[in-house]
Design goal:
Oligomer: single chain
Strand order of the largest sheet: 20-21-23-24-25-26-27-28
Largest sheet: 8 strands, mixed, barrel
CATH superfamily of the largest domain: EAL domain
Bound molecules: ligand C2E, magnesium ion
CATH topology of the largest domain: TIM Barrel
Structural class: alpha/beta
Number of domains: 4
Length: 741
């Protein structure tokens, strides 16, 4: 303590204040001021001098420290100290300056205001210290009259308050900028605009009304114009949202909003604000009403705040675009697969029991694409999309895959009938009129699983079955289908393994001439003996092999086996025995079927016409031209062709004429009752047809002598059936030939 310092204190606080307005006010909140001085008297005089002072509506409250050390401690303990009136010289000459350093450096408190006081001008800190440590005022105690002290304290607290509000706003702003990415995930443009208005209202801390306006195009659904729309509002009627600005019926505001847009600048009026938001081509104007004008600092803060808003506004647009890209199909503008799964999620969780979800798979779309080009293909898809949207109920339509559409609607509206009806008329694509049909899988709400992905899987299961239906291409999901699917997958896995392990065998069922009774050939039939020794019927596993595509490799193997068998027969001088193999559609589809058959013939060096390919009529249903082209090519190389299961399929006679056939096989169903009175009409017709077409006719499934007799009467050429022999392994077949021919 230095006595000389205090000798000046008598001059302190001469009452020269006449500023009553700063003494007004009352309130519960206070400003905490720390008085640091080693002279207790200074504490009481200061307190007395400031006793009536009210700053920005708050009284002052005092803390007292009598040394630098105490001061540091108090500041650490009281975070709400706003001002320190600090004696420079206390326990040491620089005790005050150490407190300053402690506040600014150790505690990092940049907001606390500091007024240095000293009794001795000689102890004045360097100017650099005052700047560096952001000291509000430096006064010798003699200079501090009461009036000056009040003014100094008043100014310091105001400045604290401004710093605090700037800091607060900056923190708010930082929060907005940094949280913009999470904001984007949660908010649409509308929500973002709404949030912005709320933030602004909070920032101004007034009861404001506000409008967030932008051009409609690309923001408001179905608004394709450049007029101004109200994207969000605050304090006005909610009916204004998404309406044209004119709906506000305030010409002045509408005019100013447009002005602000064209002048690209904010407009600050005493009772209103027009704020221009622009970034990356995304522009908007915010209109706010004010109850009192903004201060300059508020305006500055606003500018900073608005640049953050502009960034967010751009981001929200970009997000919307990404969102569109992620959830919309670019071609049809319909929801895409991802979005459809989300829609199915809602479908699964809603309690609308009368709803149904469906998949629509266009049949043979790839043919259109291949034959007419992708442009036409795209136009076709767009046309289908458009037609699906004409369904009368408010269905949700999506494009789920290249040629697969999804639809969710009521069970009365989305039915096989209504969907099939949509495909009755051809679709227009470019110059083309394209007749297209489709397969449909349905899943009613009652069977729907709990998540969208699972529901999609359920509909898919139904769709896959629907595709196999020959007449009606639709199926409704039911839980048993899933067991079936599981079973099917297991079987396919087992078949693949067993085929790789060489567990498939080719057996032969003799075919005989009716007139001579001699064996003229054999049908090669696959046998699958599983590891546990059981035979699985081809009627079961062939469809699975076809479904999984395995039939392509298996079919190659069959053709090669058959050729090697022909070779063996030739070598054993059974010269006129034909071996027939069955061929499935996937074998034709893979493209190099013709070559595969020809190279088998070549590799095994067998006479081509001893190999016969059996195709069923149903093969023609799917892809007639592919099959016809391949067969014509094979026929050129003298391979024989038979039409299997004739009469059970749906092929039109016009296709029959185009096929290069050698034989017709009358299906067993027409043979079963053939010996009974009046039951042979179909067999008879087929035999006559075969003769007219100059084809050999062979009857399948003869089990009794009576059937054979009737066939003889009808003039059938050849027979195959259990009555003569069941399918048998290769060596048994050789034995059979030895015994019979
Ligand atoms: P499919 O081509 O119509 O073959 C004739 C089927 O009738 C054979 O059944 C044969 O065992 C059976 N069968 C022959 N005579 C009689 C008879 O008197 N009574 C009765 N009840 N049945 C008789 P399997 O061997 O079970 O073959 C079933 C189907 O599996 C074949 O019908 C054919 O479509 C398919 N398949 C068999 N092997 C192959 C193959 O290597 N490739 C392809 N793609 N399909 C094959
Ligand atoms: Mg056959
Ligand atoms: Mg058959």
């Amino acid at each position: 303590m230095q006595a000389s310092e205090n000798s000046q204190d008598d001059f302190l606080f001469i009452d020269d204040s006449d500023e009553d307005e700063i003494l007004d006010g009352s309130g519960e909140e206070t400003w905490r001021v720390l008085i640091v001085d080693d002279d207790p008297e200074i504490h009481s005089v200061t307190q007395l001098a400031l006793s009536d002072l009210v700053v920005l509506g708050r009284h002052l409250e005092y803390l007292h420290a009598y040394s630098g050390k105490d001061a540091c401690k108090l500041i650490e303990e009281n975070e709400d100290i706003v001002l320190v009136l600090l004696d420079v010289v206390m326990e040491t000459d620089d005790a005050g300056l150490n407190v300053v350093k402690h506040i600014r450096e150790s505690l990092g408190r940049l907001d606390i205001r500091i007024v240095l006081r000293t009794g001795q001008p000689g102890y004045a800190p360097e100017e650099s210290v005052i700047k560096e440590y952001d000291i509000n005022d430096y006064k010798t105690k003699t200079e501090l009259t009461r009036r000056k002290l009040v003014t100094t304290v008043y100014a310091a607290i105001r400045s604290y308050q401004q710093i605090a509000s700037v800091t607060e706003s900056r923190q708010g702003l930082e929060k907005i900028v940094s949280s913009s990415s999470s904001l984007l995930e949660l908010h649409t443009i509308t929500e973002y605009s709404q949030g912005t208005l709320q933030q602004l209202a909070q920032l101004i801390d007034q009861d404001v009304e506000g409008l967030f306006c932008a051009r409609g195009q690309g923001i408001i659904e179905n608004a394709d114009d450049l007029s101004f729309y109200i994207i969000a509002q605050q304090g006005f009627s909610t009916l204004l949202a998404n309406q044209k600005l004119e709906t506000l019926k305030d010409e002045q505001v509408a005019k100013q909003v447009k002005n602000c847009f064209t002048q690209k600048a904010h407009q600050y009026n005493d009772d209103s604000l027009y704020l221009y938001i622009a970034r990356g081509g995304y522009r908007a104007v915010i209109y706010l009403t004010l109850t009192e004008p903004l201060s300059d600092i508020q305006k500055q803060l606003f500018e900073v705040f608005l640049s953050g808003i502009a960034i967010g506004y751009e981001n929200v647009h970009l997000f919307q675009k990404l969102n569109n890209a992620a959830y919309k199909d670019w071609l049809t503008n319909l929801p895409n697969r991802l979005e459809f799964v989300r829609l199915l999620d809602t479908f699964a969780k809603d309690d609308c029991d009368n709803e149904v979800a469906a998949l629509i798979d266009l049949n043979h779309f790839s043919d259109v694409n291949d034959a007419l080009g992708q442009d036409i293909g795209n136009q076709l898809l767009a046309a289908v999309a458009q037609r699906l949207q004409t369904l009368s109920c408010h269905c949700k339509v999506a494009r789920v895959g290249a040629d697969v559409f999804g639809i969710i609607g009521t069970q009365s509206c989305v039915t096989p009938d209504t969907l099939v009806a949509l495909f009755e008329q051809p679709f227009i694509a470019g110059e083309q009129k394209l007749p297209i049909n489709a397969s449909f899988g349905f899943c009613n709400k009652e069977h729907a699983n709990s998540s969208g992905v699972k529901v999609l899987n359920q509909i898919n299961i139904a769709l896959n079955l629907a595709k196999k239906e020959r007449v009606e291409h639709f199926a409704y999901y039911n839980p048993e289908m899933e067991d079936e699917t599981q079973w099917r997958l297991n079987m396919i896995r087992e078949l693949r393994n067993d085929f790789a392990d060489n567990r498939l065998e080719l057996w032969y069922q003799p075919q005989l001439s009716l007139s001579t009774g001699k064996v003229i050939g054999a049908e090669a039939l696959l046998r699958w003996r599983t590891a546990d020794g059981n035979f699985i019927s081809p009627a079961v596993f062939i469809p699975l092999a076809e479904y999984s595509g395995l039939i392509v490799d298996i079919g190659d193997w069959v053709v090669n086996q058959a050729c090697s068998q022909i070779k063996v027969l030739e070598e054993k001088a059974f010269d006129n025995i034909t071996i027939s193999v069955n061929v499935s559609i996937p074998q034709f589809r893979r493209g190099n079927f013709v070559n595969a058959v020809l190279s088998a013939i070549k590799n095994h060096q067998v006479t081509p016409n001893k190999l016969e390919l059996e195709i069923t009529e149903n093969i023609l249903m799917d892809d007639p031209q592919v099959v016809i082209d391949a067969l014509v090519e094979l026929k050129k190389h003298d391979i024989s062709i038979a039409l299997d299961d004739f009469g059970t399929g749906f092929s039109s006679l016009s296709y029959l004429q185009k096929l290069p056939l050698d034989r017709l096989k009358v299906d067993r169903t027409f043979i079963i009752d053939i010996a009974e009175e009046g039951q042979s009409v179909i067999a008879e017709t087929i035999i006559d047809l075969g003769k007219k077409m100059d084809l050999k006719v062979i009857a399948e499934g003869i089990e009794e002598i009576e059937q054979q007799e009737r066939l003889l009467e009808l003039g059938c050429d050849e027979v195959q059936g259990f009555y003569y022999a069941k399918p048998m392994p290769q060596d048994e077949f050789l034995q059979f030939l030895n015994n019979n021919n």
